Please model this.
Amino acid sequence: MNLRVTIVQTELHWQDAEANRNMFSEKLANAAPKTDLIVLPEMFTTGFSMNAADVAEEANGTTLNWMQQEAKQHQAVVTGSVMVRAEEQHFNRLYWVRPDGSFATYDKKHLFRMAKEHHTYTSGKERLLVELNGWKICPLVCYDLRFPVWSRNTDSAYDLLLYVANWPKIRRQPWRTLLQARAIENLAYVAGVNRVGTDGNNHPYSGDSAIIHPKGYHLLETAEVEGIHTLTLSKKELEDFREAFPAHLDADRFSLEG
Model:
């Protein structure tokens, strides 16, 4: 079974959720082909903002409803992260929204302390593993990329590792290198979806969204421009590689605590 993955690399309107939703609706209506999975960046309704007190929306609110409508319209899963308010806390929350309207969530585990994200948002505690067309997928958020233990593919738990991000241009080399490393060490496809343009804090972003083969080479690598790209991933190719090179059978056993 193949999986068609569509990644959306774009500029974002700073802290303007309605403008961003309208922008994505227009882009997807005009450019999105038939696909199984549409991936939007981290905090795709606002940009990477710490102004959660004024800008965050209620969990399961307007943006989730919009994602449900887009998923139904395109008959594809839509995913990306949003700043939300829930139980008197704020979360950088990824939604995984299916065409039938059902959804799952993942709250970003590793909060970017250099931007004081950990002072604004509450850290998630559990990974999310989802299934789509016979594929097992693990969606994570931006800074999670730097922590290989959290991304570890124990017992081949997933086939595709996914990162949505607002990863600034100044650190583009670690982004590109770590995406490749996560694919190689986990014997899995890796997709990283980043934004371009400049945010309200004057931080530029280079995009560099990519899809990486389990062997570590790029199947797709974007330029520093807006664009929607779709790639078909082969499950058989992944399974054949794992059978020919079963390094996962020699992986060190460990468990996560805290």
